[in-house]
Amino acid sequence: MLLASVALSLLLACGGGSGLSGTVKVDGSSTVFPITEAMAEEFQLLHPRVRLTVGVSGTGGGFKKFCRGETDISDASRPIKQSEIELCAKNGIEFLELPVAFDGLSVIVNPENDWATWITVDELKRIWEPGSEVERWSDVRPHWPDENLLLVGADTDSGTFDYFTEAIVGEEGASRTDYIASANDNVLVQAVSSERFALGYFGYAYYRENKGKLKLVAVDPGSGSVLPSEQTISGGLYQPLSRPLLIYVSRSSLEDKPEVVEFVQFYLDPESVILVKDVGYVGFPAGLYQLVNQRLLGRVTGTMFPGGSQVGLTIEELLAEE
User: Cβ distance 159 to 60 under 8 Å?
Assistant: First the structure.
Protein backbone atom coordinates (compact mmCIF):
# COMPACT_ATOMS: atom_id res chain seq x y z
CA MET A 1 0.00 0.00 0.00
CA LEU A 2 2.86 2.35 0.81
CA LEU A 3 4.52 1.65 -2.55
CA ALA A 4 1.23 2.23 -4.34
CA SER A 5 0.74 5.53 -2.51
CA VAL A 6 4.26 6.68 -3.42
CA ALA A 7 3.72 5.67 -7.05
CA LEU A 8 0.44 7.63 -7.20
CA SER A 9 2.10 10.69 -5.66
CA LEU A 10 4.90 10.54 -8.21
CA LEU A 11 2.37 10.17 -11.04
CA LEU A 12 0.45 13.26 -9.88
CA ALA A 13 3.64 15.22 -9.36
CA CYS A 14 4.68 14.44 -12.90
CA GLY A 15 1.36 15.66 -14.29
CA GLY A 16 0.10 12.24 -15.20
CA GLY A 17 3.04 11.65 -17.52
CA SER A 18 2.54 14.94 -19.40
CA GLY A 19 5.14 17.67 -19.09
CA LEU A 20 2.80 20.23 -20.61
CA SER A 21 1.74 23.07 -18.32
CA GLY A 22 0.47 26.65 -18.51
CA THR A 23 -2.93 28.27 -19.00
CA VAL A 24 -5.50 28.42 -21.78
CA LYS A 25 -8.24 31.04 -21.50
CA VAL A 26 -11.45 30.65 -23.52
CA ASP A 27 -14.60 32.76 -23.48
CA GLY A 28 -17.56 33.53 -25.73
CA SER A 29 -20.64 31.80 -27.07
CA SER A 30 -22.99 29.88 -24.78
CA THR A 31 -23.92 27.80 -27.84
CA VAL A 32 -20.34 26.63 -28.39
CA PHE A 33 -19.65 26.35 -24.66
CA PRO A 34 -20.79 22.70 -24.28
CA ILE A 35 -18.34 21.60 -26.99
CA THR A 36 -15.40 23.54 -25.57
CA GLU A 37 -16.21 22.43 -22.02
CA ALA A 38 -16.22 18.77 -23.11
CA MET A 39 -12.95 19.25 -25.03
CA ALA A 40 -11.37 20.97 -22.02
CA GLU A 41 -12.36 18.20 -19.61
CA GLU A 42 -10.91 15.46 -21.83
CA PHE A 43 -7.79 17.49 -22.61
CA GLN A 44 -7.07 18.04 -18.93
CA LEU A 45 -7.23 14.31 -18.28
CA LEU A 46 -4.27 14.03 -20.66
CA HIS A 47 -2.55 17.20 -19.44
CA PRO A 48 -3.57 17.80 -15.80
CA ARG A 49 -0.94 20.51 -15.29
CA VAL A 50 -2.61 22.76 -17.87
CA ARG A 51 -5.13 25.17 -16.35
CA LEU A 52 -7.96 25.62 -18.84
CA THR A 53 -10.80 28.08 -18.13
CA VAL A 54 -13.96 28.36 -20.26
CA GLY A 55 -16.21 31.39 -19.76
CA VAL A 56 -19.60 32.31 -21.21
CA SER A 57 -19.92 35.98 -22.15
CA GLY A 58 -21.85 35.46 -25.38
CA THR A 59 -20.25 35.67 -28.81
CA GLY A 60 -20.08 39.48 -28.77
CA GLY A 61 -18.84 39.65 -25.19
CA GLY A 62 -16.24 37.00 -25.94
CA PHE A 63 -14.91 38.93 -28.93
CA LYS A 64 -14.54 42.07 -26.79
CA LYS A 65 -12.25 40.17 -24.41
CA PHE A 66 -10.44 38.36 -27.23
CA CYS A 67 -9.74 41.53 -29.20
CA ARG A 68 -8.35 43.18 -26.07
CA GLY A 69 -5.91 40.28 -25.71
CA GLU A 70 -7.55 38.90 -22.55
CA THR A 71 -8.21 35.40 -23.91
CA ASP A 72 -6.44 32.89 -26.12
CA ILE A 73 -9.56 31.47 -27.82
CA SER A 74 -13.01 32.90 -28.49
CA ASP A 75 -16.05 30.65 -28.98
CA ALA A 76 -18.44 32.04 -31.60
CA SER A 77 -21.82 31.04 -32.97
CA ARG A 78 -21.48 33.48 -35.86
CA PRO A 79 -18.55 34.91 -37.85
CA ILE A 80 -16.57 37.85 -36.54
CA LYS A 81 -17.95 41.29 -37.46
CA GLN A 82 -16.01 44.03 -39.22
CA SER A 83 -16.11 46.20 -36.07
CA GLU A 84 -14.57 43.33 -34.10
CA ILE A 85 -11.91 42.77 -36.76
CA GLU A 86 -11.01 46.46 -36.48
CA LEU A 87 -10.82 46.24 -32.68
CA CYS A 88 -8.50 43.24 -32.93
CA ALA A 89 -6.33 45.07 -35.47
CA LYS A 90 -6.20 48.16 -33.25
CA ASN A 91 -4.83 46.01 -30.42
CA GLY A 92 -2.46 44.00 -32.61
CA ILE A 93 -4.43 40.76 -32.32
CA GLU A 94 -4.14 38.46 -35.34
CA PHE A 95 -6.55 35.52 -35.33
CA LEU A 96 -7.20 32.16 -36.94
CA GLU A 97 -10.84 31.34 -37.69
CA LEU A 98 -11.57 27.62 -37.32
CA PRO A 99 -15.00 25.99 -37.91
CA VAL A 100 -15.54 23.15 -35.43
CA ALA A 101 -19.13 21.86 -35.78
CA PHE A 102 -22.58 22.33 -37.28
CA ASP A 103 -25.65 23.58 -35.45
CA GLY A 104 -29.28 23.92 -36.41
CA LEU A 105 -30.96 26.84 -34.66
CA SER A 106 -34.10 25.22 -33.32
CA VAL A 107 -37.58 26.70 -33.02
CA ILE A 108 -39.04 25.40 -29.77
CA VAL A 109 -42.42 25.31 -28.03
CA ASN A 110 -43.77 23.83 -24.81
CA PRO A 111 -44.71 20.09 -24.95
CA GLU A 112 -48.34 21.04 -24.19
CA ASN A 113 -48.48 22.94 -27.47
CA ASP A 114 -50.46 20.65 -29.80
CA TRP A 115 -51.13 23.13 -32.61
CA ALA A 116 -47.77 24.50 -33.83
CA THR A 117 -46.12 21.44 -35.40
CA TRP A 118 -44.62 23.46 -38.26
CA ILE A 119 -44.13 27.12 -39.13
CA THR A 120 -43.00 28.98 -42.24
CA VAL A 121 -40.03 31.33 -42.47
CA ASP A 122 -42.44 34.09 -43.47
CA GLU A 123 -44.51 33.50 -40.32
CA LEU A 124 -41.37 33.59 -38.19
CA LYS A 125 -40.43 36.86 -39.85
CA ARG A 126 -43.85 38.38 -39.11
CA ILE A 127 -43.48 37.31 -35.49
CA TRP A 128 -39.92 38.56 -34.92
CA GLU A 129 -39.46 41.59 -37.19
CA PRO A 130 -39.24 45.10 -35.68
CA GLY A 131 -42.66 46.66 -35.27
CA SER A 132 -44.38 43.27 -35.41
CA GLU A 133 -48.10 43.37 -34.70
CA VAL A 134 -48.20 39.69 -33.79
CA GLU A 135 -49.22 39.51 -30.14
CA ARG A 136 -51.31 36.34 -29.95
CA TRP A 137 -51.02 32.87 -31.44
CA SER A 138 -54.17 33.59 -33.48
CA ASP A 139 -52.36 36.52 -35.13
CA VAL A 140 -50.09 33.96 -36.80
CA ARG A 141 -52.88 31.62 -37.94
CA PRO A 142 -56.55 32.33 -37.16
CA HIS A 143 -57.27 28.77 -36.01
CA TRP A 144 -54.45 28.81 -33.47
CA PRO A 145 -55.39 29.70 -29.85
CA ASP A 146 -56.46 33.25 -29.06
CA GLU A 147 -53.79 33.44 -26.35
CA ASN A 148 -50.86 35.77 -25.75
CA LEU A 149 -47.64 34.62 -27.42
CA LEU A 150 -44.68 34.58 -25.02
CA LEU A 151 -41.51 35.00 -27.06
CA VAL A 152 -38.12 33.74 -25.88
CA GLY A 153 -34.78 34.22 -27.62
CA ALA A 154 -31.13 35.21 -27.54
CA ASP A 155 -30.07 38.66 -26.36
CA THR A 156 -28.29 41.19 -28.55
CA ASP A 157 -24.81 40.17 -27.38
CA SER A 158 -25.36 36.65 -28.68
CA GLY A 159 -24.18 35.29 -32.01
CA THR A 160 -27.38 33.27 -32.08
CA PHE A 161 -29.35 36.55 -32.12
CA ASP A 162 -27.26 37.85 -35.02
CA TYR A 163 -27.62 34.69 -37.09
CA PHE A 164 -31.35 34.23 -36.42
CA THR A 165 -32.24 37.81 -37.31
CA GLU A 166 -30.26 37.67 -40.55
CA ALA A 167 -31.65 34.28 -41.56
CA ILE A 168 -35.28 34.97 -40.62
CA VAL A 169 -35.81 38.74 -40.71
CA GLY A 170 -33.29 39.35 -43.47
CA GLU A 171 -31.16 41.88 -41.58
CA GLU A 172 -28.69 41.16 -38.81
CA GLY A 173 -29.79 42.70 -35.54
CA ALA A 174 -33.29 43.57 -36.73
CA SER A 175 -35.75 42.26 -34.14
CA ARG A 176 -38.66 43.19 -31.95
CA THR A 177 -37.54 43.86 -28.40
CA ASP A 178 -40.54 42.76 -26.32
CA TYR A 179 -39.40 39.21 -25.55
CA ILE A 180 -37.56 37.29 -22.84
CA ALA A 181 -33.91 37.66 -23.85
CA SER A 182 -30.79 35.98 -22.47
CA ALA A 183 -27.30 34.96 -23.57
CA ASN A 184 -27.71 31.90 -21.33
CA ASP A 185 -29.49 29.15 -23.26
CA ASN A 186 -30.45 27.36 -20.06
CA VAL A 187 -32.52 30.41 -19.07
CA LEU A 188 -34.32 30.18 -22.43
CA VAL A 189 -34.94 26.46 -21.95
CA GLN A 190 -36.49 27.14 -18.56
CA ALA A 191 -38.73 29.90 -19.93
CA VAL A 192 -40.18 27.75 -22.73
CA SER A 193 -40.54 24.61 -20.64
CA SER A 194 -42.54 26.44 -17.96
CA GLU A 195 -45.03 28.29 -20.21
CA ARG A 196 -47.58 26.56 -22.48
CA PHE A 197 -47.90 29.51 -24.86
CA ALA A 198 -44.17 30.19 -25.30
CA LEU A 199 -42.21 30.14 -28.57
CA GLY A 200 -38.43 30.36 -28.58
CA TYR A 201 -35.21 29.61 -30.44
CA PHE A 202 -31.76 28.39 -29.41
CA GLY A 203 -29.04 25.90 -30.38
CA TYR A 204 -29.93 22.29 -31.21
CA ALA A 205 -27.77 20.87 -28.39
CA TYR A 206 -29.89 22.60 -25.76
CA TYR A 207 -33.00 20.98 -27.23
CA ARG A 208 -31.26 17.58 -27.26
CA GLU A 209 -30.24 17.98 -23.62
CA ASN A 210 -33.77 18.96 -22.56
CA LYS A 211 -36.00 17.23 -25.11
CA GLY A 212 -38.17 15.68 -22.39
CA LYS A 213 -39.53 19.13 -21.54
CA LEU A 214 -39.41 20.81 -24.98
CA LYS A 215 -40.95 20.28 -28.41
CA LEU A 216 -39.40 21.00 -31.82
CA VAL A 217 -41.26 22.92 -34.51
CA ALA A 218 -40.48 22.07 -38.15
CA VAL A 219 -39.45 25.05 -40.32
CA ASP A 220 -40.70 25.53 -43.89
CA PRO A 221 -38.57 27.86 -46.05
CA GLY A 222 -41.00 27.41 -48.94
CA SER A 223 -40.03 23.95 -50.09
CA GLY A 224 -41.58 21.87 -47.29
CA SER A 225 -41.20 21.72 -43.52
CA VAL A 226 -38.08 20.13 -42.02
CA LEU A 227 -37.18 19.31 -38.43
CA PRO A 228 -33.58 19.80 -37.27
CA SER A 229 -31.68 16.53 -36.82
CA GLU A 230 -28.13 15.33 -37.27
CA GLN A 231 -28.99 14.26 -40.82
CA THR A 232 -30.89 17.38 -41.93
CA ILE A 233 -28.34 19.76 -40.37
CA SER A 234 -25.23 18.06 -41.78
CA GLY A 235 -26.91 17.48 -45.15
CA GLY A 236 -27.87 21.13 -45.57
CA LEU A 237 -31.60 20.27 -45.63
CA TYR A 238 -32.54 22.29 -42.56
CA GLN A 239 -32.58 25.79 -44.00
CA PRO A 240 -32.12 28.64 -43.39
CA LEU A 241 -31.19 27.88 -39.78
CA SER A 242 -28.23 25.51 -40.20
CA ARG A 243 -24.97 27.26 -39.35
CA PRO A 244 -21.32 26.58 -38.54
CA LEU A 245 -19.92 26.97 -35.03
CA LEU A 246 -16.42 28.40 -34.77
CA ILE A 247 -13.46 29.11 -32.53
CA TYR A 248 -11.09 32.03 -33.01
CA VAL A 249 -7.51 31.54 -31.87
CA SER A 250 -4.95 34.25 -31.18
CA ARG A 251 -1.92 33.79 -33.42
CA SER A 252 0.42 35.12 -30.73
CA SER A 253 -0.98 32.52 -28.30
CA LEU A 254 -0.19 29.80 -30.83
CA GLU A 255 3.35 31.14 -31.20
CA ASP A 256 4.07 31.69 -27.50
CA LYS A 257 2.04 29.02 -25.68
CA PRO A 258 2.55 25.32 -26.53
CA GLU A 259 -0.47 24.46 -24.39
CA VAL A 260 -2.72 26.45 -26.73
CA VAL A 261 -1.31 24.66 -29.77
CA GLU A 262 -1.88 21.26 -28.14
CA PHE A 263 -5.44 22.13 -27.10
CA VAL A 264 -6.46 23.41 -30.55
CA GLN A 265 -4.92 20.34 -32.22
CA PHE A 266 -6.86 18.15 -29.80
CA TYR A 267 -10.04 20.12 -30.57
CA LEU A 268 -9.61 19.58 -34.33
CA ASP A 269 -8.62 15.91 -34.15
CA PRO A 270 -11.22 13.88 -36.12
CA GLU A 271 -11.33 11.43 -33.21
CA SER A 272 -12.61 14.23 -30.96
CA VAL A 273 -15.78 14.44 -33.05
CA ILE A 274 -17.38 12.01 -30.60
CA LEU A 275 -17.35 14.82 -28.01
CA VAL A 276 -19.21 17.11 -30.43
CA LYS A 277 -21.88 14.46 -30.85
CA ASP A 278 -22.00 13.69 -27.13
CA VAL A 279 -23.09 17.27 -26.34
CA GLY A 280 -25.73 17.26 -29.08
CA TYR A 281 -24.12 19.01 -32.04
CA VAL A 282 -23.17 17.73 -35.48
CA GLY A 283 -19.52 16.99 -36.17
CA PHE A 284 -17.69 17.32 -39.46
CA PRO A 285 -16.64 14.37 -41.63
CA ALA A 286 -12.92 13.55 -41.32
CA GLY A 287 -12.12 15.16 -44.67
CA LEU A 288 -13.52 18.49 -43.57
CA TYR A 289 -11.50 18.44 -40.35
CA GLN A 290 -8.42 17.94 -42.53
CA LEU A 291 -9.26 21.12 -44.46
CA VAL A 292 -9.73 23.05 -41.22
CA ASN A 293 -6.45 21.68 -39.89
CA GLN A 294 -4.72 23.04 -42.98
CA ARG A 295 -5.73 26.52 -41.83
CA LEU A 296 -4.19 25.79 -38.44
CA LEU A 297 -0.97 24.31 -39.79
CA GLY A 298 -0.59 27.13 -42.30
CA ARG A 299 -1.40 29.74 -39.63
CA VAL A 300 -3.98 31.23 -42.03
CA THR A 301 -5.27 34.41 -40.43
CA GLY A 302 -8.40 36.42 -41.18
CA THR A 303 -11.99 35.46 -41.88
CA MET A 304 -13.71 33.36 -44.54
CA PHE A 305 -16.81 35.52 -44.02
CA PRO A 306 -15.85 39.05 -45.12
CA GLY A 307 -19.52 39.97 -45.46
CA GLY A 308 -20.61 38.42 -42.17
CA SER A 309 -22.79 35.31 -41.82
CA GLN A 310 -23.44 33.76 -45.24
CA VAL A 311 -26.77 32.01 -44.80
CA GLY A 312 -27.05 28.79 -46.79
CA LEU A 313 -23.38 28.61 -47.83
CA THR A 314 -21.57 25.46 -46.71
CA ILE A 315 -18.18 25.28 -45.00
CA GLU A 316 -16.97 23.06 -47.84
CA GLU A 317 -17.81 25.78 -50.34
CA LEU A 318 -16.07 28.46 -48.28
CA LEU A 319 -12.91 26.39 -47.83
CA ALA A 320 -12.92 25.45 -51.53
CA GLU A 321 -13.15 29.12 -52.49
CA GLU A 322 -10.26 29.90 -50.18
Answer: yes
